[in-house]
Amino acid sequence: MYRTFLLFVLTFCASLLLAQTNAPLLTAEEAVRIALENNFTIRLVQADADIAKTNNTKGNAGMLPTVNLVANETFTLSTFQQKLSNGTEFNALGAPFNTASAGVQLNWPLFDGRRMFIAKQRLEAQEALGQLNLQSQVQQTTADVLQAYYDIVRGRQQEKALAEVITLNQERLRIAEARLAAGFAGQTDALQARIDLNQRRSDLLNQENVTLSAKQALNQLLARAPETSFEVDETLVNNYTPERTSLLQKIQTQNPTMLSLQKSSEVAALLTDEARTLNKLRINGIGQFNALRSDNGSGFQRSNTQAGLTIGGSLVYPLYNGGNFKRQVQVAQLQAQQAGIQVDAQRLSIESSLDNQLAFFKTQQQVLLLEEENVTNARENLNVSTERFRLGQTNALETQTAQNTLEQALFRRNLALYNLKITELQLRLLAGEL
Fold it and tell me: Does residue 288 fall inside a structural domain?
């Protein structure tokens, strides 16, 4: 009889799974791949990284010359009177005067207190920071996608547990109705069995809605339509073995958040060095080629044409600007101190989070072992109780209690499996392994 009942349970669960295979299977790896290609936040951070890379040039650091082409032309109508020393006079009303000039101007910073070299180092650090921020966002998005995926897996496992409990309630109802028809039991056993069955069916409907919401949340992370249909791999494999020393070492060398903060601190230090060069001597090289032509509608000199090359330099040494140089250096120093404090605070926070996650992971491993044993014992207990109820050796309350015990054991086991997987994700994220 037990084998027949077990076969019935397996057949019901199999039919439930077959009903869910109409949609395409989405693996965890495929979900991560889609998210990394389409996720809006990653695309925005990628754009920031591209901007930082584009800005990292010698010209932006002020190390290259600027060359400008300048051209001007003016036309004037004016009353003109001119009397030369030899007595010659020129008088004109509305005489036209035209002047045209063009030139190529070059300005090249030759020395600025090493500010241009410091600026280039800062731009390189900012480009590296952009890549670290992108890496950090990629890993965070990967963790978010996998957690959303495992939320769905947990929902499916809860549905399977409820489906098993529903099948068990149906068997209990069948026995209670058979005993009622034979006059061996009262109507209350059958009514209570039907109430419990309807409650479990209601629980299954609610759980299916929770799973559907989890699917919509994952679709949002994948930047696709919320109604996109898919199924997931419904197994949770837990073979991860964390080791604190190894994880702590990886945090120092691989954690993208730590690396980003350290690089931000480096950028802040370079900005301080830049500010210190503001009151230094600056020398610029100047080169210019000019061409000039003027045409006069009246007067002794009717036209003039000039062309020539000018080479020179300029020297600027700031003497006083109202204390702004000192203020800018002080502000930059304070910002650098803030960046250093953020690094120390983040390091302490990550180490604390690591210890908490490791302790929780170890606890959940122990909980899982206990709940696996509880599920085995609860199934055996329910089998015995059901047979006793079938033979009239016990009442319906014992069977109902055994069913509830199995249901709770299944839920706790599923929760422990889920907690282990999510804690593994958090540990891998801290270690920069995603």
Answer: no
Residue 401 lies in a domain: yes
CATH of the domain at 408: 1.20.1600.10
Longest dimension (CA), the chain: 149
The candidate with the shortest Cα–Cα distance to 38, out of 134, 133, 141, is 141
Query: At 284, which helix (H) or strand (E)?
Result: strand 282-296
Instruction: Note whether 421 and 150 are within 8 A (CB).
Output: yes
In a domain, 290, yes or no: no
According to DSSP, the residues that pair with 33 across neighbouring strands are none
Q: How far apart are the C-alpha atoms of 2 and 420, rounded to whole Å?
A: 33
pLDDT 10s digits, 128-181: 999 988 988 899 999 999 999 999 999 999 999 999 999 988 988 888 888 887
Helix pair angle (256-276, 244-254), 10° resolution: 40
Residues 409/226, Cβ–Cβ less than 8 Å:
no
The shares of helix, strand and coil residues in the chain, as percent rounded to the nearest 5, are 65, 15, 20
Q: 413 and 419 in contact (C-beta within 8 Å)? A: no
Give me the number of domains the chain comprises: 1
DSSP alpha helix (H) spans, 277-323: none
Threshold 0.90, pTM exceeds: no
Its domain, for residue 145, covers 2-38+112-280+318-430
**pLDDT of 296 strictly over 70:** no
Residue 247 near residue 426, CB atoms below 8 Å:
no
Residue 252 phi, psi (nearest 5): -70, -30
Q: What is the CB-side half-sphere exposure of residue 179 using CA atoms within 13 A?
A: 26
Q: pLDDT per residue over 28-54, tens digit each?
A: 999 999 998 888 888 898 898 999 989
Question: Is residue 86 assigned to a domain?
Answer: no
What would the DSSP string read from start to end of 122-190?
A: HHHHHHHHHHHHHHHHHHHHHHHHHHHHHHHHHHHHHHHHHHHHHHHHHHHHHHHHHHHHHTSS-HHHH
Closest CA to 357 of 187, 242, 260, 255: 242
